Amino acid sequence: MAQTNNRALQEIHLSENPAAETPEEKFPEKPSYLKYTFANPYNLTLLGGALLASALTLNPLIAVAALGLEGLWVLHGSQSRFMQRMLWDPMYEKERLEYEQRRRMEQVEKLGQGGQNRVLQLIEKEKQIQQLAMQNPSFTGDLLRHEITKTHNLVNAFIDLAVTCSRYENYLASIDLKQIEATRSHWQQFIEANVGKVDAVEMDIAKKNFAIINKRIERVAEIRRYLKIAYGQVNLIENSFQLLADQIVTMQSPNELSGQLDELLDGVESIKETAKETEQILRTL
Fold first, then answer.
1. Where does residue 86 rank: exposed (0-12), middle (13-18), buried (19+ CB within 10 A)?
2. Is the confidence at residue 284, as pLDDT, over 60?
3. pLDDT in the model for residue 153
4. Binning pLDDT at 50, 70 and 90, where does residue 16 land?
């Protein structure tokens, strides 16, 4: 019964506060070389084969030797810079990209058809920018990889902003602002008309109702303010990608691309700070 009540309270909190989100599992910031050294299919196959051979032949020395070699392999294989650069780092990067792709698609599925189409068009534009950048002799391999990371971050930011905007739009659609304002007008008129005419407790309750209604109206105004800023940033990312696709072939310096991407990323960070402030206000209410 208690668990059911807890779940119900969580659902009420999530539906009442559009800023509330369920925690999500984060991808590790650094690769675990021990994990890659041990938990790769080649190592597990060899180790499993040795242990199976030991069991079939009833010879424990095979298992002891296999485990000893395994310990040496895990110790040295995980610390080898050569192995890290040639095997483990590429494995980590592949897993990171797969995680990012899954996260992207999970987020995109939360959008309506129009929002999904905009995201897919932006992803296609990102691919076009990367292809055109590779054709420009001004961009070296290392620099290009660095800039590609920035375009990935911008596409992810676009998706996050679009999902947040959609969630806030749904919340606003559930609010009858005219009814809220009518209720505020009712309490304001009651307070003004009954000063000194009703007892202190009744007047105190009326003032509390009036204050709460004002906070609700402020809450709606904050959400609308955030939506205007967030939609502006979404459109800016979209338009900037269009411009970059037109310009990138003729760019004479990689700094031109880097500067425009950095400016967009700075704008995204500013929006994130605005979102934090808005969500803090919502929590205090």
1. exposed
2. no
3. 81
4. very low
pLDDT tens string 18-35 = 444 444 567 777 777 778
Q: In angstroms, what is the C-alpha Rg of the chain? A: 29
Phi, psi of 31, deg, nearest 5? -70, 145
Return the axis-axis angle of helices 113-135 and 89-108, rounded to nearest 10°. Answer: 150
pLDDT in tens, 248-277: 777 766 666 677 777 777 777 777 776 666
CB distance 90 to 39 below 8 Å:
no
The residue extents of the domains of the chain are 25-109, 119-285
Count of residues in the chain: 285
Residue whose tokens read 């051979």: 53
> Residue 210: which residues within 8 A CB-CB, separation 6 or more?
184, 187, 188, 191
Buried b (16+ CB within 10 A) or exposed e, 140-177: eeeebeebbebbbebbebbbbbbbbbebbeebeeeeee
E strand residue ranges, 96-221: none
Nearest residue to 125 via CA among 162, 158, 166: 158
155 in Cβ contact with 123 (< 8 Å) = yes
Nearest to 248 by CA among 234, 261, 238, 235: 261
pTM: 0.60
Q: Look up residue 23 and give its amino acid.
A: P
Q: Which of 133, 156, 137, 84 is nearest to 248 (CA)?
A: 133
What amino acid is encoded at 122 in this protein?
L
CA nearest to 80, candidates 33, 30, 31, 42: 33
